[in-house]
Write a structure and sequence with these properties.
Elements lengths: L9 E5 L4 E5 L6 E3 L6 H13 L1 H10 L3
Antiparallel strand pairs: 1-2, 2-3
Length: about 60
């Protein structure tokens, strides 16, 4: 079943009070679109994405098309 996803490679981070889309296509993860108001959570999400960038990129490449 296709995911209907799009380039660039990215991940979504969501909770009840927070959501952000992070571009993982480059050497560093970066926020896509509007910046989240909760800067502390945004920083945490970016740190986690950067710490796991190789794993996230690998999962993106293996996703169903």
């Amino acid at each position: 079943m296709p995911l209907n996803d799009h380039e660039p490679a990215h991940v979504h981070v969501r909770s009840a009070e927070f959501k952000i889309k992070i571009d993982i296509s480059g050497d560093q993860a970066k926020v896509m679109g509007e910046s989240e108001k909760n800067k502390k959570r945004q920083k945490q999400a970016l740190e986690i994405a950067n710490d796991n960038l190789a794993l996230l990129k690998s999962a993106w490449e293996k996703r169903p098309q």
